[in-house]
Amino acid sequence: MDPLLMVQQQIKSALELTNHEPIVYELLAEPKRxxxxxxxxxxxxxxxxxxxxxxxxxxxxxxxxxxxxxxHDSVSAEDVKALSAWMTFKCALVGLPYGGGKGGVVVxxxxxxxxxxxxxxxxxxxxxxxxxxxxxxIPAPDVNVNQQVIAWMVDEANIITSSSQNAHFTxxxxxxxxxxxxxxxxxxxxxxxxxxxxxxxGLDLQGATASIQGFGNVGSNSAVMLAGWGVKVVAVSxxxxxxHNPEGFDVAALxxxxxxxxxxxxxxxxxxxxxxxxxxxxxxxxxxxxLEGAITKDNxxxxxxxxxxxxxxxxxxxxADQILLDxxxxxxxxxxxxxxxxxxxxxxxxxxxYGHYWDLDMVLFEExxxxxxxxxxxxxxxxxxxxxxxxxxxxxxxxxxxxxxxKLRGWY
Length: 412
Ligand code: GLU
Known about the structure:
Layout: H1 3-16, H2 23-29, E1 33-42, E2 48-59, E3 65-72, H3 77-94, E4 99-106, H4 114-128, E5 137-141, H5 147-161, H6 182-201, E6 209-213, H7 217-228, E7 232-237, E8 242-244, H8 251-259, E9 271-273, E10 285-288, H9 297-300, E11 307-309, H10 318-326, E12 330-332, H11 334-337, H12 340-354, H13 360-385, H14 390-409
Parallel strand pairs: 3-4, 3-5, 6-7, 6-10, 10-11, 11-12
Antiparallel strand pairs: 1-2, 2-4, 7-8, 8-9
Helix pairs in contact: 1-3, 1-14, 3-14, 4-5, 6-7, 6-12, 6-13, 12-13, 13-14
The chain binds glutamic acid.
């Protein structure tokens, strides 16, 4: 499903249960500003290749636009627009002073050499530098963008503006003004939300089983935290395959193995299954932590879990969402479940602006506090309105907040 239609449907469903004026839908259905550029990059063999890049600034009523930047061959305008809208709702939901942004480049970075990747990252900044800035739009890592890419981008922006500021990007390496805990933030946050959901449904995490779809930064860090609480992570999948161990993996060892660039299917003692079987294994907890649209009406029928905690953005299509709700699955929606990343990005930005840096304990404590408060708020909204749907409750809360500020600003 087109992710932009998906987010528009989510906005409509939330607005049906509120009394906002129809203009609120118009203001939120499309990004306020959207940029796309073709930009040239010189390849190692001397040839020039043109790349398509995007940045979407969905809504800046609450503050500067904020959101990641992804390098992936599936990136499209609709995709980036939808992802920027989810950022708007995510930031509003957890109480950050940000609007939503998202960007991307249509590229499979695995095809590029390290030098080509650096030239591409710098070229993106040259194309988009007028549109970003610490009080305008602050990019961060998303799929296939790591701290090194962000470091090149910070440097390029500094060259262009003859300055050495660093609050215009987050997800920076520590020595370049990054925050402690930013790398683990999204994955750990997902686990806090699993723990809260487990409390609500009376599931004991000790001995509970979990499957993790996607073993990148988000999936692997949430798996490590869950395993630390006694959860048996029995299945993990990536782009190639699904690996299964009914006794539960030594997750820290699996992460170390995978971070070192080894394929999951070569990890000692695993049973290798087709990728799609991850959704068919009966588990207590399912964490989709890859791309949008992974859970569809077809595989949702086969899913039997008690908690679905969305580490990815937009992993569940609306049809699949309904199937899972009908089955009684407790869903922690993406805009809540994966908000830990942007929360710690906010801490990074404020540390940069303030020039004073926090220790890891403080970062993790404050992140957890914000996420638990947001969970309680959404849960309360869901129960008082009797809607049995955390996603809907989360959207209602986020939209109420943005609508109020847009009204104050006189946008309608
Ligand atoms: N890409 C992450 C997200 O989708 C983080 C964004 C940020 O830190 O600004 O939430």
